[in-house]
Every structure is written in C-alpha cells, then in structure tokens.
Description:
Strand order of the largest sheet: 6-7-8-3-9-10
CATH architecture of the largest domain: 3-Layer(aba) Sandwich
Helix content: 25-40%
CATH topology of the largest domain: Rossmann fold
Number of helices: 9
Largest sheet: 6 strands, mixed
Strand content: 25-35%
Bound molecules: adenosine-5'-diphosphate
CATH class of the largest domain: Alpha Beta
Amino acid sequence: MTYDLSNLVHRYGERTVLQIGSLHIDPGEIFALVGPSGAGKSTLLRLLGLLEAPSQGQLSLQLNGQSFTYATASIAERRQVVMVFQRPVLMSLGVRANVAIGLRIRGERDYHERVEQALARVALSHLSDAKAHTLSGGEMQRVAVARALVLEPKVLLLDEPTANLDPYNVRIIEDLIREQHQTYGTTIILVTHNVFQARRLATRVALLLDGGLVEVGPTAQLFDSPRDPRTAQFMSGELVY
Ligand code: ADP
C-alpha cells in the first residue's frame, strides 16, 4: 500500500493542527512518526487510517493500481487498513473472542485456527480461555495487536503501542512489528514519542513539530546526520516542549 499526501491541512474548529506540504509512504516500510506531545502525530495517524477526512488537501492510498481516499474507499479497501490504539478497548469477553471480533464483524467463518495462531504469535496461548478484563496492561495490548494481525491488513497503524509497558511486553510487541514487516511485507506506521523505539524499528522516520513535518528520511539520517537543527535537538533529547 502506498500513501500520497499533498497540501494537507487539518483543523479542529479554528485551530490548524496539521499542515503537511507533501508526504509519500512506500509499501512495506516501517515508518515512525516522532515528535513531542501535541505535535499532531495521532491526528495524522487517524487521517492515514481513514477514520477522519482532512479539512483540506489530498490524502490518497494506492493498492494494486487502484487509488482511493477517505471519501471514495470501498469497504474492502477500508479493511486493508487496521489501527491499534494506545489504550486497547477490549470487550468483556474471553481472550479468544476478543481476537476473533474483527473477523466476526467481517463475516468470516472457520477462523479458529487463525485466532490460535495469532494468540501464539503474541505469546498468549496459555491465556486464551481467560476473561480479557483479568489481563495485565501488557497482555491486553498484546490481545489488541493479535486482533489486528489476524485481519492480515496491508497497513498496520500503531499509536504508541508500547507506552507504559514493561520491557518484557515491549520486546514481544517490537519483535512482532519486525516479524510482520519481514515476513508479510505489511506497511507499518508507528507513532511514538520514544526516539529509541523509532531507531530500533523504523526504516524511515518523520519528525513532526507543531503540526508540520520538520524532516523525513531514512532512520540513520535523522539520528546520525540530521539536516535540520531541530531534528538533532529532538533526537538527542535536548528539545523540550
Ligand atoms: P500527538 O499525538 O502528537 O500528541 P495529537 O494529534 O493528539 O498530538 O493532537 C494535536 C493537537 O490537536 C493537540 O493540540 C490536540 O489538543 C488537538 N486535537 C486532537 N484531537 C482533537 C479533537 N478531536 N478535537 C479538538 N482538538 C483535537
């Protein structure tokens, strides 16, 4: 899946929260969006997830030669893009039922094997019979990741997927992101305020400040030879907002 954004502006009421001249995201990238709190990262992720339409400008996706937008996407096209939110919303059901929920909504049948495989990938097979609300925060986030992966999306959008998690859970989720990239070629767009996570995972990084893209480039460029002084400051932890 390819993304093309041009002259994009997003407003909430009178406030402009995003202003992006152009951005292109290639299929199979792990693209990290970094920036301080309030920079507009989650808003951009929601636009990329076709959950909101931009106030102005273009945001289009291309898949198999077909181009579509928030306004024109078919249900089948929309379903190629799956988002994992920062705070997982689980139903008061068992773990297995929570992982299966997207498949059920899509009218799929015979998904039991796929659900078991997804649970194994997030190392939760031993808890598949548990009630979701009895899990720890890290386990809940892994259920949310399994629920997304089992849908086999072309694009996986992750909003601070490991914020507030302990190192064990961070490791499992980061390993899965790498595996999804390497084995399935899924386009992964990751919002994180943690520059170390971006460095560990991303193929390219974009720094967002005050709703604008300061610098976009290969991960090594942003960390080792940034072109904008604000990038150097943010990546080294000096830029405090
Ligand atoms: P980040 O993810 O980088 O922390 P956000 O995208 O959440 O930033 O927010 C960017 C700005 O947009 C913030 O000032 C926030 O208050 C504002 N904002 C986000 N969502 C809404 C909304 N639904 N209504 C009004 N303002 C919003």
